[in-house]
UniProtKB/TrEMBL annotation:
<keyword id="KW-0472">Membrane</keyword>
<protein>
    <recommendedName>
        <fullName>SURF1-like protein</fullName>
    </recommendedName>
</protein>
<keyword id="KW-0812">Transmembrane</keyword>
<comment type="similarity">
    <text>Belongs to the SURF1 family.</text>
</comment>
<keyword id="KW-1003">Cell membrane</keyword>
<feature type="transmembrane region" description="Helical">
    <location>
        <begin position="216"/>
        <end position="236"/>
    </location>
</feature>
<dbReference type="InterPro" id="IPR002994">
    <property type="entry name" value="Surf1/Shy1"/>
</dbReference>
<keyword id="KW-1133">Transmembrane helix</keyword>
<dbReference type="InterPro" id="IPR045214">
    <property type="entry name" value="Surf1/Surf4"/>
</dbReference>
<dbReference type="Pfam" id="PF02104">
    <property type="entry name" value="SURF1"/>
</dbReference>
<feature type="transmembrane region" description="Helical">
    <location>
        <begin position="12"/>
        <end position="32"/>
    </location>
</feature>
Length: 255
């Protein structure tokens, strides 16, 4: 009864099924491994954050360039404050406000380091932002990677008033200041007077965000696809066998 499985038509179906199942299993396993990697990255980042909070600050040059291993490390730099900018639409403790970013011209480097000196509630206003200290200063804070092209729906520079910037990155600051800018920034451990310290954020891609759980969802989808292929193969075989049996018994299909 099942000799039809050896016909050219069914050979094609069988080969398709035999190839589809391992592909689905492989893709599901790969998505699962991606989720597990994100879980491990999140765990590592959490552990590293605890270490960074108590670790002694390292010189800026020793923690650059910024990557997942160095992001969040406490660092120190000495220089003179220069141009000050505001970063609007930044939330802290469920309140809306803005960051005060001042460019620190690092001694002996010829470059400037964006320093988030603190957060101020309310609408961004230069009048509300405390002035930077004069003379030589030494800052201590957590190193952060440059932000992406957009933040909270605000573009890097377009549409913002003079003296404001949408994201903290070398790409967005290079056209606003007359000197080279480090590809990274720091947030002070202790904010300057009149402001609230901005906590360091976890490295990008190390959290259990929506993308991580998308990987877990895709894992289930691929395994479901594998089961569906097997189910459909058995269903087609059964229908074909029943049709051949009916033909042998002379039972005509109803129209």
């Amino acid at each position: 009864m099942y000799r039809f499985l050896l016909t050219p038509r069914w050979w094609g179906i069988n080969i398709f099924v035999l190839l589809s199942i391992p592909v689905c299993i492989f893709m599901g396993s790969w998505q699962l491994s991606r989720f597990e990697d994100r879980v491990q990255d999140h765990k590592t980042a959490s552990e590293q954050t605890k270490v960074n909070e108590t670790a002694a600050p390292e010189p800026l040059a020793s923690v650059l360039p910024v990557d997942q291993k160095t992001s969040g490390k406490r660092t120190t730099a000495t220089g003179h404050y220069g141009k000050q900018l505001l970063v609007p639409q930044r939330d802290l403790d469920e309140r809306s406000g803005f960051y005060v970013v001042t460019l620190l011209k690092v001694e002996g480097s010829g470059k400037a380091l964006p320093v988030v000196r603190g957060w101020v509630p309310g609408k961004a206003s230069a009048a509300k932002a405390p002035a930077a200290p004069k003379g030589e200063v030494t800052v201590v804070g957590a190193l952060q990677a440059s932000e992406s092209a957009t933040s909270n729906g605000v573009t890097a520079s377009g549409g913002l008033p003079v003296g404001q910037v949408g994201v903290i990155s070398a790409a967005s600051l290079v056209n606003l200041v007359p000197y080279d800018v480090y590809d990274g920034w720091i947030t002070l451990d202790k904010a300057d007077s009149g402001m609230t310290a901005v906590p360091a954020s976890a490295p990008e891609g190390s959290g259990l965000d929506l993308k991580a759980f998308q990987n877990l969802g895709y894992t289930g989808e691929w395994f479901v696809f594998a089961g569906f292929v097997v189910f459909m193969w058995f269903r087609l075989v059964r229908r074909e066998a029943e049709a051949l049996r009916d033909a042998e018994l002379g039972i005509a299909e109803s129209v």
